[in-house]
C-alpha cells in the first residue's frame, strides 16, 4: 500500500507545515477510517479493518506519504515520530470491548462479514433467518470472507470428502458444529480439534478446506509447543483459527498455557520493540496428528477440552486427487458459499442443542487416555466424588488392581494411587480406620466412593 495508489494529494511546499496538519492529511487519504486500538494501528480496506503488521510498518507508510507530497524535510526520524504520534492521538479508540463491535456503543449485535454484506448472527441464532446488511466502516471488524452469502448454495464435493473420511454421521455433525463455531469469535465451548490418523486419510485435506473457508488473513499457524513462548501468542491475535498441519510426535506441549488459551483467559502479548498489551484469545485450534502426543496433565482439564476426530479410512494411492489441495480447484468449483452454509447450520445446531460429543470420537479419546494414564482412566470409570460418603482404601486398591490385570497395565502402589485420587477429586481426604475382619483393618477415603459399593459387602 502506498499513498500514490490511494489518492493524489497536493504538494506541500511550506517547511513549517505543522505535524498535526500532516497527520490530518494522512488520515484523510484513508477516508478517516484509521483506528489505533490496543497498541496497533488499523486501516480499512476491502470491507474490513487491516492491522499494520507492526508499528514500524505504520511508520514506513507515513514515510511513503510524506515523500509523495514532497515533505522530504520531514523524513528525519524525530519529525516522523511527531507525525505518527499525532496520528495515533487523533485515531485512538479507548474501548475495553473485543472486536468485532460497532463503534457506536448502543449497538450490541454480532455479524459475520462476507463479500456481499454483514450477516446478523444474533438474528440468525434466534430465528434461523439470514439477514444481510450493507457493509459499514462503523463496524470495527478485522475479518471478511472472500465469497458471498448465497442462500441455496451447496457443496457436493465437500460432502463426499466427509462421507469418505468421517462416515459416521454423528462425527460429521460434531465437526460441523465446531467449524461453524469458528465462523465467529467465541471461546465459550472451550474446545480444540485434533484430527488423528496416518497418511492419505483426508485430515490434511479437510484442514486445507477450513483454511480456504476462513481465509488466509484470518488464520495463524502457531505450533502447539510454542504456546508457552514469550513472543509467540501475538501471532494469533484477531484470528478465527490456529491451524497446525502436523503436531510432532515428540512435542512437549505447554499444557497449562494451552488450557488457559482455549478457556479464553486474557494474556499478555509481548511484541518485539513495543510495549506489551493485554489481549483475549480468539483463534480456535485445529491440528493434525499422526500419533497422539504425550499428555502430562493428570487432571481432567486438558482432556475435556479435546475434540478428537479419528480418520480411519486410507485413500488408495491411485484414487488420490491432488487438485483438491489447490485454491484453484475450490475457487472454480464455487463450493465455498455452500460449505459456509453447511458450517452456518452447524453453528445454529451448536447454539440450539449444545456441543455433540459423538460416541465415535469419545471412545477413541477414552482409549488413548487409558493408555497414557491408566490410573486416571480407572478413577473416572469406577470412582465418584460424593460429599459425606466413604470407601475403604483397600477396596479401592483391590478394584484398581483388578482393572490393571484385566487390561495388562502395571499396578501402581497405594501411594501413587492416593496422589492421583487427590488430583482428580479435590474433596477427597483420608479418614480413620475400619475393620476388615480377622483382625485386619483399612483406612477410609472420605467424600469419594466406588460406584458399585455392593461388590465388597
Write a concise synopsis of the structure shown.
The protein has helices spanning 3-6, 19-29, 55-68, 77-91, 121-127, 156-165, 169-181, 203-214, 255-262, 327-333, 336-353, 359-372, 374-382, 393-407, 414-424, and strands at residues 34-37, 40-45, 48-51, 101-102, 111-114, 117-120, 132-133, 139-140, 192-196, 219-220, 241-247, 267-269, 277-279, 284-289, 306-310, 383-392, 429-437, 440-450.
Give your account of this protein's structure.
The protein has 457 residues and is α/β, with parallel strands linked by helices. It has four domains: 3-91, no CATH class; 101-140, no CATH class; 156-366, P-loop containing nucleotide triphosphate hydrolases (Rossmann fold), CATH 3.40.50; 373-456, Arc Repressor Mutant, subunit A. 37% of the residues lie in helices and 19% in strands. It is built from 15 helices and 18 strands. It has helices at 3-6, 19-29, 55-68, 77-91, 121-127, 156-165, 169-181, 203-214, 255-262, 327-333, 336-353, 359-372, 374-382, 393-407, 414-424; strands spanning 34-37, 40-45, 48-51, 101-102, 111-114, 117-120, 132-133, 139-140, 192-196, 219-220, 241-247, 267-269, 277-279, 284-289, 306-310, 383-392, 429-437, 440-450. The strands form six sheets. The chain has a five-stranded parallel beta sheet. It has a three-stranded antiparallel beta sheet with strand order 1-2-3. Helix 2 packs across helix 4. The relative contact order is 0.10. Mean pLDDT is 89; it is low at 1-14.
Amino acid at each position: 500500500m502506498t499513498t500514490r495508489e490511494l489518492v493524489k494529494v497536493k504538494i506541500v511546499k511550506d517547511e513549517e507545515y505543522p505535524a498535526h496538519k500532516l497527520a490530518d492529511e494522512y488520515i484523510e487519504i484513508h477516508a478517516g477510517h484509521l483506528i489505533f486500538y490496543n497498541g496497533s494501528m488499523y486501516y480499512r480496506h476491502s470491507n474490513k479493518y487491516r492491522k499494520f503488521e507492526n508499528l514500524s510498518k505504520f511508520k514506513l507508510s507515513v514515510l511513503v506519504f510524506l515523500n509523495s507530497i514532497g515533505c522530504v524535510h520531514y523524513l528525519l526520524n524525530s519529525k516522523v515520530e511527531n507525525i505518527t504520534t499525532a496520528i495515533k492521538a487523533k485515531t485512538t479508540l479507548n474501548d475495553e470491548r473485543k472486536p468485532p463491535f460497532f463503534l457506536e456503543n448502543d449497538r450490541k449485535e454480532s455479524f459475520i462479514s462476507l463479500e456481499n454484506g454483514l450477516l446478523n448472527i444474533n438474528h440468525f441464532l434466534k430465528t434461523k433467518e439470514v439477514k444481510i446488511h450493507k457493509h459499514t466502516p462503523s463496524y470495527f471488524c478485522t475479518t471478511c470472507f472472500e465469497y458471498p452469502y448465497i442462500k441455496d448454495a451447496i457443496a457436493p464435493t465437500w460432502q463426499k470428502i466427509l462421507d469418505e473420511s468421517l462416515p459416521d454421521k454423528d462425527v460429521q455433525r460434531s465437526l460441523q458444529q465446531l467449524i461453524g463455531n469458528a465462523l465467529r469469535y467465541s471461546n465459550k465451548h472451550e474446545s480444540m480439534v485434533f484430527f488423528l490418523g496416518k497418511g492419505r486419510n483426508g485430515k490434511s485435506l479437510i484442514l486445507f478446506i477450513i483454511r480456504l473457508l476462513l481465509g488466509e488473513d484470518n488464520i495463524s499457524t502457531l505450533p502447539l509447543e510454542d504456546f508457552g513462548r514469550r513472543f509467540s501468542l501475538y501471532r494469533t491475535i484477531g484470528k478465527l483459527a490456529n491451524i497446525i498441519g502436523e503436531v510432532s510426535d515428540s512435542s512437549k506441549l505447554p499444557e497449562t498455557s494451552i488450557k488457559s488459551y482455549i478457556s479464553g483467559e486474557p494474556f499478555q502479548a509481548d511484541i518485539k520493540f513495543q510495549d506489551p498489551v493485554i489481549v483475549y484469545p480468539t483463534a480456535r485450534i485445529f491440528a493434525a496428528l499422526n500419533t497422539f502426543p504425550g499428555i502430562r496433565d493428570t487432571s481432567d482439564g486438558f482432556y475435556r477440552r479435546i475434540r478428537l476426530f479419528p480418520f480411519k479410512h486410507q485413500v488408495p494411492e491411485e484414487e488420490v486427487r491432488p487438485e483438491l489441495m489447490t485454491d484453484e480447484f475450490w475457487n472454480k468449483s464455487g463450493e465455498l458459499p455452500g460449505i459456509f452454509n453447511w458450517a452456518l447450520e452447524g453453528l445454529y445446531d451448536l447454539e440450539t442443542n449444545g456441543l455433540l460429543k459423538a460416541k465415535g470420537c469419545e471412545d477413541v479419546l477414552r482409549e488413548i487416555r487409558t493408555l497414557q494414564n491408566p490410573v486416571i482412566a480407572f478413577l473416572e470409570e469406577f470412582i465418584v466424588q460424593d460429599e459425606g460418603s466413604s470407601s475403604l482404601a483397600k477396596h479401592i486398591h483391590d478394584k484398581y488392581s483388578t482393572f490393571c490385570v484385566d487390561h495388562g497395565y502395571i499396578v501402581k502402589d497405594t501411594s501413587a494411587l492416593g496422589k492421583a485420587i487427590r488430583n482428580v477429586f479435590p474433596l477427597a481426604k483420608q479418614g480413620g480406620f475400619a475393620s476388615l475382619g480377622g483382625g485386619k483393618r483399612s483406612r477410609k477415603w472420605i467424600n469419594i466412593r466406588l460406584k458399585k459399593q455392593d461388590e465388597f459387602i
